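Morning - flavin-adenine dinucleotide inputs below, output right after.
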Amino acid sequence: MQRSVWGWGYEGVEVPQLEKTRQMLETIFPKPTFRLPKPNVELWKSSLRKPRFPEPKIGTCEVSHDPKERMMHSFGKSFRDIARGVLGQYGNVVDYVAFPTSEVQVQEVLEWGEKMAQDGTPVDLIPFGGGSSVVGGVEPLIDSKRVVSIDLSRMDKIISVNLTDMTAQLQTGIFGPALLRGLTEYDKITLRHLPQSLSFSTLGGWLATRSGGHYASNKTYIDDFVVNMTIVTSKGIVKTSNLPASGAGPVADKIWLGSEGTLGIITECTVRVQKEPTFKCSSIVTFDSWDNGVNATRLISQSGLYPTQCRLMQGMEAIGYGLIQDFVEACLVLGFESATIDGLEERFMQPCLDICLENQGTILKTPKKDESATDTFRNSFITAPYLRDHLIMDGYIMETFETACSWSNFPKLDEAVRAAVASLGKPVMLTVRFTHVYPDGPAPYYTLTTQASSPTSLVSDWDALKQVVSDALIANGGTITHHHAVGKDHAQWFVKEKDPIWIAMLVNLKGFLDPQGMLNRGTLLPSKLLKDFKSISSKI
Ligand SMILES: Cc1cc2nc3c(=O)[nH]c(=O)nc-3n(C[C@H](O)[C@H](O)[C@H](O)COP(=O)(O)OP(=O)(O)OC[C@H]3O[C@@H](n4cnc5c(N)ncnc54)[C@H](O)[C@@H]3O)c2cc1C
């Protein structure tokens, strides 16, 4: 199967729930007034802008000018990216794609970039894993004059596994399925980290964006599995300490986790692995009141039971995921799994269900061994991105906003998001679920669907939506992202959210590690801020 140039995943994947979803949307919105044709990739390839400088010779590293590769490396997979792909808006593509196969070749690319800058012909270098960014993380800036995407997918080996320490040393270009398959084949072990985008994203992307996995509590971020990392920077190769724990000063890994390709290229990582879970159980609980559902979820998150699934969602979402048939205010999916502990139903699930009952919950599905309501949720959630591609062609704008806040602040933040959406003055379907829960607060995940008035307003209407909701998150005690990262799309809110001294420290760190400012310019830190960084740091 061929990877789609403009859409999610593979070309031509059937979406069984498409017609049903279209019918459901037509009960809420007017019938779509336009349906865009399937993108004509061949036509766009033939009219693509030529590379703006001669093909570089970068040591022994392969460099491609292939139009399809350049298109695929110029966008991520956000709504905005897919919409522009459908509309054929490939005006600002990268000039070349480099495919390093070793740390030495990554170093050669950075050295070449340094030389280009010294020669007065600066180039932007954008690390690329699977290209599943939903925040403009792999896209060139509009003012870039020369851009090379650095595709790390050929650095995809499992280097070693240590079953005594339960660790695996991996190259970071490895995609999710190869990583899971390799570990299973090795000795039925796994990295317990399953983002929805697993099939089309890489370990390096997860590290660089601090991805959030499918499990709802306890170890939610990729950070929790990292032992050490190797990072190639313009200053040289950094290896963080390879120890199970160390109290010796600040933790070096944390500088690069979430650095989104701006402070160096992560080429290797040692991760903690574990035995694959064999015991599983799950339950579904419904609530006639959303607040009761929130309360029960809070108490479970504070109980020390750490369910692997603890997803509270509004009834509409639960129906969409096939979890329930009839509307309720709130639906909670609970799950536990373990490689070693049998009897999860009595020891872990039952105390959670007791909390739900105390909060007027109705147990819809009682826990049974090996039965998995969480699998139903996971499966429909894995095919959802394909559905989005089709609905975009029908003129629907579908966007998600994910954040985190304290439990006490959630009602205020939720109200503010709803008010922001209402301020747009158009019909919007808005649902929320908690993707992750912590003892001190949830990670609310909002899904918004609305209609564009014309094909040309798909992107501008999305921009308006993004602006009002993101402003509301920052003004009301939320974070601009719980796990989707900052990228270019969130950079303006990132600098508002964080302390100015921390931002200045990051800017100075970038100045040290990437003195030419060539690594993923405009991602994380707005490019204007980087230009002015000397004057900013002098004021602090
Ligand atoms: C349908 C869908 C579902 C998603 N579900 C989730 C989810 O469940 N959880 C979640 O956290 N995110 C999710 N995402 C967002 C995205 O998949 C994550 O951000 C993921 O971690 C990106 O990995 P990637 O390999 O595709 O990285 P890319 O998109 O290629 O890159 C992301 C960023 O990391 C940088 N980068 C990539 N590799 C390296 C490297 N080796 N060294 C340094 N920098 C690097 C890039 O420059 C870029 O800034 C989803 C996205 C989509 C489209």
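Note: The first strand starts at residue 62 and ends at 64.

O.
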